[in-house]
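the two lines:
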Amino acid sequence: MAKKRKRAADAAAEAGAAEKPDDSAPARPERTLFGFKEPPAPAPDAEPASAAVSPAAPLFRNKEKVLVTCSRRITFRYRHLMQDMVSLLPHAKKDSKVESKQSKGAALNELVELRNCSSCLFFECRKQKDLYLWMVKSPGGPSVKFLVNAVHTMEELKLTGNHLKGSRPLLTFSTNFDEQPHWKLVKEMLTQVFATPKDHRKAKPFHDHVFVFSIVDGHVWFRNYQISVPHNEIDKVDKGGLDKMTLIEVGPRFCLNPIKIFAGSFGGPTLYENPYYISPNQIRALEKRKKAGKYAKKVKAKVRRKMHEMENTLEPDEFADMWKGED
Amino acid sequence: RTPALFYAQRTPRRPRPPACLLFARAGGRRLPLRSKVEMVGLASEDPLIHDEVDMDDVDSDVEESDSEDDSGEEAQLTPSDKAIYNREAILEKLEDIAWPQKVDWMHKLTIDHDQGEKIDVNDDLARELAFYTQALDGTREAFEKLQSMKVRFLRPTDYYAEMVKTDAHMHKIKGRLLSEKKKIEEAEERKKAREARKRAKEVQAEKKKERAKQKKEEIENVKKWRKQRQQGGFAKGNDDGPDLNFEGEDGFKQSKKTRPGVSPGDRSGGLAKRGKEGKNRRSRDAKFGYGGRKGLKKQNTAETTNDFRSFNKGAESQNKKRKRS
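prediction for all of em together
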């Protein structure tokens, strides 16, 4: 929309020591989603956000673009999760499946560069059972690998909420994100990936859903709720309406278990390893081994019992021959 | 006000709060959390060639069980002290990628919420409640901020635009909610009917007793009057009948009992039983047609002429000449 450029130009002009050229033709009324907006008055109070906070700070524009891809042999549940993510993030670009055997990192880095994206969410499904999520900041940024559990997609009929597609979400983090450096990094990456840029083409104006990121037991839990609050006007909640606010879950929901953090994108030196992480393969192997030992243990127990009996023989029973003569 | 919450308890049913959505885990299995691992020798240098590769052969057939209770704990390994944790580098990277500090809140829209005390992960209800309160408090704060900034943030009811779930999907959801509600209501009704039936038996017994008593009383009354008349020598002019209390408290009442479920054309008066499969049979009849009478089929056909299956089996073996009574 043309208004974007214009606004930025205006803001820049204002920030640059108020050298507004007044001899140009009067500015057209700005077209916004709410209708036409009169050009801003000389006082810059109509430019809340993109105006610089202080004359010295540079203009900040969130140009985040996320590439969302998956590996081949991904199952339906995880594919639906990926599709849900694409619909939740209007600044995401979906790409076709990535054939991965070796040198996956190089191929993906190239792909991200090609599509001109600044970060990437790569869903990797192994053995059609385990889903790993790579969250990567593109040019040389850090990357985090997560194991995804407890996936519930938006398709589930028990998740009854609904919200505008492309509306900007409110993000809530629990305060334990600020306790440790690796969580801080994860929080920053989550913010950058999940927060829809303010002036994005596909972003819709209202705020009607909220994301919850919370750390419980060393995992990051994600929830998405629709906000329903009684209101009659669009910029003001009804009196006492904030107390009557309810949240309805929209979905999807998942739980991320961080495995490793790397310094580069899709590789590089390891910055952090999760000491509590066991790979799902190992868990399955442990289970199987436990079951495998059952028969051997039983045989051993039998042998032990026999030895025990041989060592401590019973004295002959006095009543053993009592019924012997009878048929 | 009770929030809408998810996740059925592992304990069996309990009375559900009204607007509550509880559901069991559907396929999303979680792997055990507090499992510890010895990373030595398992962490490979190249992160992309997975370190799970060497374990591949072991578990091709095993179904991944819901190992919440972490049954593999016997082979428990200590959390590795050798896990890498390069704090300075992490903080450096953070500086690299982070947005500038003075960024306006409208770009980020993040709220921090204090979780309070530790949440038990395995208690589904408590966990979801914690997430819900986090979202609620966060939204309240955000809305206050937005309101003070005079930003238009609430969606008007007539704003039609593409939603994240299609209308068809929402229709399915609605259908499901309605059918659930109906099921609950029907169960309640059935319970009430059962109770009422129990009570009805008692009430009926009482009524019977009452009626018997009344009858006895009236007979006594007539007898007394007769005796009186006898004693009075059957005097004429004293002809008031026995005091049978015609205009008493209740008066003469016609039975107002209606017989629901009895159609006027039903000559048995609703007493004829429709068989065991009442509801089912009736609904099937309504759907597929009545089925017709049994006897409209041919009985003597080519196949049935030589078909002796249904005849008396044991009779042939005995002597045919023996007279059978």
